[in-house]
Amino acid sequence: MPTSNNSVRQMGGIYIKKYGSKKPIGKYYFRLMLGIIGIKQPIEYYGKNKRLEFERNTLQLWKSYCLNVPNVIQVKKSELYLSAIKGETCAEIFNKSIDFDLILKIFIDVNNRHELAIKFNEPTLCHVDANLGNILYSDNKLFHIDFEMGREYEAVNVWAEREITKLLISLSGVVGINSMKRVVSIFLNTYTHTSIVRRFINQKISEQSVSNGANETKYRLINLALDMKECMVASYDD
Ligand SMILES: Nc1ncnc2c1ncn2[C@@H]1O[C@H](COP(=O)(O)OP(=O)(O)O)[C@@H](O)[C@H]1O
Ligand SMILES: [Mg+2]
Q1: Which residue puts its alpha carbon closest to atom 8 of ligand 1?
Q2: Distance, CA 23 to ligand 2 centroid (Å)?
Q3: CATH at residue 41
Q4: Whose CA is nearest to atom 15 of ligand 1?
Q5: How many Å is the maximal CA-CA distance in the chain?
Q6: Angstrom distance (rounded) from CA 3 to CA 68
Q7: What is the total count of domains within the chain?
Q8: Are residues 29 and 146 in the same domain?
């Protein structure tokens, strides 16, 4: 189920992105209004033009660090024109079969990028909406698309935490419960920013005791934190 009223159309070698409201629409307009009166909001609740501007700036920043993203071709009538990346999204690839080598590649990519983000204090080098539909695999390279999430008032380590959790939750949806421990283990062996992982684990485990009536996402995040903790403890025992 799409979470926004954005629409994307392809015209030859170009993807054209038109920005719409986020769903549910009532909540979007309420938070948009809060933003207008000066109460800080997540990027997904910005108005259409401001989101387009944020996405364009992020794509240009990534390019300046030689990271793989589509080229911005032009902005016309509040639409963003991007070069088409040939290939499939990781969601499409994993829906056919799980490729653990590709999962490792994704984790190496995240780790190296977070190295840059932290070193240069560039939070937007973290891809907060890192679901597998927003990561393309083309010519043995990973490309990222769709930069409309994050909170500009948060620190770089929080952006990094949001990316790794979004990514792992998205992976848990395709690999299934039985393989998730293997995925978590590959992740912990690859991702070197351990203070970010520890912060996430501690936070979610402390929420566990008050999670009665928690929604599905909260429940999945707590389970992820528990899997990570178990995997860390097992590696100390080895
Ligand atoms: N530059 C691009 N190259 C290839 N595919 C793209 C490109 N931009 C978008 N897509 C395709 O369109 C889909 C939706 O684009 P996206 O930017 O993620 O918008 P949305 O906000 O609607 O999720 C992607 O999952 C991908 O399949
Ligand atoms: Mg998307």
Answers
A1: 15
A2: 14
A3: 3.30.200.20
A4: 8
A5: 59
A6: 25
A7: 2
A8: no
Ligand 1 binding pocket, CB closer than 6 Å: 4, 6, 8, 15, 17, 70, 82, 84-85, 89, 133-134, 136, 145-146
Residue 67: name the closest of 121, 18, 163, 135 by CA: 135
Residue 174 belongs to domain spanning: 88-237
- pLDDT average, residue stretch 41-68: 97
d(CA 123, CA 133): 21
Q: What percent of the chain has pLDDT over 70?
A: 96
Quick one: which ligand is closest to 13's CA?
Answer: 1
**Helical (H) or strand (E) element with 42:** none
Residue 67 has which token pair?
Answer: 């990271």
> Do 124 and 221 belong to one domain?
yes
Task: Report the distance separating Cα 157 and Cα 126, nearest Å.
Answer: 9
Q: Given this model, what pLDDT does residue 210 score? A: 67
pLDDT tens-digit map of 123-172: 999 999 999 999 999 999 999 999 999 999 999 999 999 999 999 999 99
